[in-house]
Here is the input.
Amino acid sequence: MSDTTPRLDSRPTDGGPLAVPLGEWTAASLTAGKVWRDTAAALGRAGGVAGWDLRELLALDHLGALMLWNHWGRQWPARVEVSDEQRALLERVAAHPPTEARPGGLSLAERVDMLGLWVIQALLQMRDFITLMGQLLLDFLRLLAAPRWGPWRDFSGHLYRIGAQALPITALVGFLIGVVLAYLMSQVLRQFGAETFIVNILGLALIRELGPLLAAVLIAGRSGSAITAQIGVMRVTEELDAMRVMGIPAGFRLVLPRAMALAIAMPLLAVWTTLASLIGGMLASDLTLGINPGYFYEALPAVVPVANLWLALAKSAVFGVSIALIGCHYGLRVKPNTESLGQGTTASVVAAITAVILIDALFAVLFKKVGMWG
Here is the structure.
């Protein structure tokens, strides 16, 4: 046994035996191997001592002091001999003991309080988000008033990263979704002899709904998280504080170019994803039903009104602005630590995808008669 190993000795005195801890009662020593269990067992056998003498300890940290304090029943023994440093450490442990969960859990009043806190936090987030929307509108009007001073370099950079660099992944996912949909629908349509209606189903589903929705979900996960991470890192590295000190408006330089880039990139990506999906659907239809792409090219404009395309472009622009605002909102709320950065990025992706689905459902209800025959 090493001299630094935590252990417990005893010393006889006129008033009774004194318990004398020896070694290093620190986190590194107590958590090594079976030391914690052996030390706890030694403390359990020292129940009838007349007092304690800690002055021969080689080292004592917060964990060792907490172990002794809990063994003492969280009160000072009748007789204890310690150094000034040890007494100060024990007093800190006594002043801030660890909280213990009650077996019964939270009471009804505590649950109501927790619910109230969640509601207040949700309302505060809603207030901040509405403020961000209003600031975006003011910044856009400022840009219209003085376009030459706009953040065009930032805008072009975001447009390239959000739009051009997302073309491969959106095309691949769109193509595969088109293949899967055409293959599954061909199995059903063949049973009823309605193979030609695959053009109607694929055209309407992909152009009006799935193309824009797929592109928006992919961009929300890809670019929405990147926006939050970028702004969050600026918070961690104190760049946002430096911008405030220099009088640079964060909304005009950070939020506006990202919102503009996504508002322009999302409709283009939606069209790109829809074309890739239609190509995949044409290929699968040709292989499974024998319907060649020429028939698709001729029948598609007749069975899918062009109003569906305009509706898809409009809601794609709304998707883009929403993703940008949510990403910036959570990025600006990041606290200057890495844990908050990770939590904000995760929350941003979840909120953006949820918002995209809710907006798509809202468009489906409000414009249910637009672009539909009859």
Notes: The chain has a mean pLDDT of 86.
